[in-house]
What we know:
This protein is α/β, with parallel strands linked by helices. It has one domain (3-254): P-loop containing nucleotide triphosphate hydrolases (Rossmann fold, 3-Layer(aba) Sandwich). The chain contains 12 helices and 7 strands. The protein has helices at 16-29, 44-48, 60-64, 70-73, 94-97, 107-115, 132-140, 158-171, 191-203, 217-225, 229-232, 237-254; strands at 3-7, 34-38, 75-79, 82-85, 121-125, 143-149, 177-184. The two termini are 13 Å apart. The site of magnesium ion has 5 residues, from helix 1.
Amino acid sequence: xxxxxxxxxxxxxxxxxxxxxxxxxxxxxxxxxxxxxxxxxxxxxxxxxxxxxxxxxxxxxxxxxxxxxxxxxxxxxxxxxxxxxxxxxxxxxxxxxxxxxxxxxxxxxxxxxxxxxxxxxxxxxxxxxxxxxxxxxxxxxxxxxxxxxxxxxxxxxxxxxxxxxxxxxxxxxxxxxxxxxxxxxxxxxxxxxxxxxxxxxxxxxxxxxxxxxxxxxxxxxxxxxxxxxxxxxxxxxxxxxxxxxxxxxxxxxxx
Length: 255
Ligand code: ADP
Ligand code: MG
């Protein structure tokens, strides 16, 4: 059975895309079959895998508005064991265009349900908002993985996110669960990072991953080369952290 994980947090710049790319790549490295679905008009997950977001004919947008098929838009084997449904700025218009569509919250689910059986994991990278695209991702997903940046306002907005997840569970996807929280951009040199981790642990009842992603310059560089961290710099602290996170995600799946 496959597991579908939406990586979501309505804050921008907290490490969603970095986590979607590198967790997926590390799952693939461990032999899992992975489909990555980019649902952010910024298309950073797409370019992070080396796919030219400015020159693709079919993306998640064409899929969602019914202008292409899954076969048209899936980019197979961007790395070994990992395929991608790309996104680009075209998707920015989707929110308005989908307003009148029947069951607009289920558009993505109807598509992904047709192919999820071919994959061990489907990882969906969400945009930095709680809009119809994020709702589509949460309706499709089994779980939501929440990256939390180790900075002072880490908990801000989290209750809103949890509220949205609860609403989706009540109205659209009764099986949706919170996969867990993963701390990102942890800086061991500052007390602040440690305080944030302690504070979130004290205030959150959700599963918190033991793997903490360090602030690591290699993680910031890798996307400009279009290569995930485990291939770009296999021995970096960032690669090790995402491998460990992949182990934990697999372990959770098996239990
Ligand atoms: P989001 O998808 O939540 O907006 P990103 O994953 O795009 O966030 O990260 C925002 C910025 O921070 C990017 O420039 C990214 O390269 C950088 N970044 C993310 N995680 C790390 C990390 N652990 N160490 C260093 N830089 C990071
Ligand atoms: Mg992003």
